[in-house]
Amino acid sequence: MLRGLIKGDNAFVPTAALRVTVRSGVDVAALLVTEGGRVRGDADIVFDGAPAHPSGAVRLSGGAVGDEEGATDGDAREAVRLDADLAHVEEDIARLLVVVSTDEGALRDARGLSVEVSGPDGGTVVAYEVTDAGPETAMVLAELYRRSGGWKFRAVGQGYVDGLEGLAADHGVDVTEEQRPEPAPQTPAGIPEAPRPAPPQTPAKSQEPPAQVLTAPAPAPALPPATVADWTFGGFFEPHTLSGEDNDVITVEDLPPGPVVVELALRTDRHTSLWTLTGSNKQKDLLVNTTAKDFRGRLLVVPEDGRLRLKLGADGPWQARVLPLAAARRLTEETLEGWGPDVLLHTGGTTDVAFHYRGDSNFIVDTYALAGHEDPTTLPKSRWPYINEIGRRRETLSLPEGPVLVHLGRADGPWRARLRQPGPVTSWIRRARR
């Protein structure tokens, strides 16, 4: 190497077709950013899933390099080449970032992590070796940037403990769910209602409309196995419908073993809580804890020995239905809308589920992979990653091959969900957090 730099140093390089070689067996990418330090879109990211920039000025060779003079077999296995024709980089692009990442261990484990820039004649122009890598899993290793009508190289060495996700966010890469027109506000989905007879009213001076009341749900259809032939986890039974007013204990006997869906609707403007009860009548799991007006939602519950007991803390009329797990709403690529907690089901291949939550309180989503889980009387442990956020959010969860239960355990507001395949940039960023 003709000229080695230390972290923070810079040097002019020819405005020509340069070859950037990175060694140490790490993944290599390039980000083409504007003066503001941000990409203009996914096309400004050059990586193994999109190895050439649309301008043709930057290209990733996509493999090990072993033809440099003096390279050993070990060097060939550990070097990746990036070609940058600086004379043809678009005027909007102010810097070309050389990015490295690893999906196993940390960059401090990458022996001899270095970058070397060669000129058109193959001779080394400048080089930089990282000597202070730590627990980071992604790094801006170096950059080529415009200066005084030419180009310079800087040894950067800026690492990211939060990996490619943090690096990408700092440079304007957006992997969230795309924006879609907002639908018109709708009444929260839940148990269908039918008008309940109102008491006789006498003429009054006030012209205010009468208060709404909770009404009886429509009868639920039976769910024989034939209606869910693509998914047979858990038992089947006729739905149980119960109703009452204010605080109560909800009890359903003789359920088949395994998880069930509890559907609850409550007309109230005060606090609501719902606990599972053990066989000795001790509170166990807090399913609902909200001050949402007129709460409604669907919850995932595992009864004890076929007996479901729930302690409801409520102020107002309520109705509940206990349904088999097959009543979970199916996720597809079509937008599914809901309000409040819910139980969703994915039965296809690996994919993503994108959420748009428009409530103001907690939004908590867990997933349960049922493939290979042979005990239908229990649920497997919930998967990582999960969602646990507050307020309006756009979030995306990766899903393995189904069947997978997706439980919106907290959602005091409207939401939308749909399946979508991750794009190449999302997959690239996700590799570092597997």
Word description of this protein:
This protein has 434 residues and is mainly β. The protein has two domains: 4-170, Lipoxygenase-1 (Sandwich); 225-433, no CATH class. 5% of the residues lie in helices and 41% in strands. The protein contains three helices and 29 strands. It has helices spanning 73-78, 163-170, 424-430; strands spanning 4-5, 10-13, 17-23, 27-33, 45-46, 58-64, 79-85, 95-101, 114-118, 124-129, 138-147, 150-160, 240-245, 248-252, 260-266, 272-277, 283-290, 296-301, 308-313, 317-324, 329-330, 336-339, 342-346, 351-357, 362-369, 387-390, 393-399, 404-411, 414-420. The strands form six sheets. A six-stranded mixed β-sheet has the order 1-10-9-3-7-6. It is elongated and about 85 Å long. The two termini are 36 Å apart. Mean pLDDT is 83; it is low at 64-77 and 177-229.
Molecular shape: elongated
Low-confidence stretches: 64-77, 177-229
Oligomer: single chain
Per DSSP, the total helix count is: 3
Spatial order of the strands in the main sheet? 1-10-9-3-7-6
Total count of strands: 29
Helix content: under 10%
Overall mean confidence score, pLDDT: 83
Biggest pleated-sheet summary? 6 strands, mixed
What's the Cα radius of gyration?
A: 29 Å
The domain tally reads: 2
Please report the distance between the alpha carbons of the first and last residues. 36 Å
Q: Beta-strand level of the residues, as a percent range?
A: 35-45%
Q: What class, by secondary structure content?
A: mainly beta
